[in-house]
Amino acid sequence: MGTVALTFDTRPVPWSRSVRGDRSARRLKQDKYIQDLAMMLKLAARGKTFDGSVSVYLEFDYDRKQTQISISDNQLSRHRIKRPDIDNLSKMVLEAIEKSGLVNDDAQVSYLRAEKVE
Hints:
Distance between the termini: 31 Å
Number of strands: 4
CATH superfamily: Holliday junction resolvase RusA
Number of domains: 1
Helix content: 25-40%
Number of helices: 2
CATH class: Alpha Beta
CATH architecture: 2-Layer Sandwich
Structural class: alpha+beta
Oligomer: single chain
């Protein structure tokens, strides 16, 4: 099994619902975040793709304003319990993983571990 790891130096952006055709500043920020993450993942992957089931490990670090995406098990002592919700943060990254071409469909993710820390 291969590994793709990435630390993305920017404040994590959560997914939020939008009305069809909505081009609000929030939606534009989300689109840019997904595009930037997808580009960075594509570069980090160096042409690698995953055809089967994949595991994804996410760490959203608000203190250092980083999103870390890796396949490794890190034990963290401090967890953030404030908004945004962790599922909304994860949705953005899963969308970027699919757009990067690492997977054909984010449904290939069979294991997801996500943490918010500060």
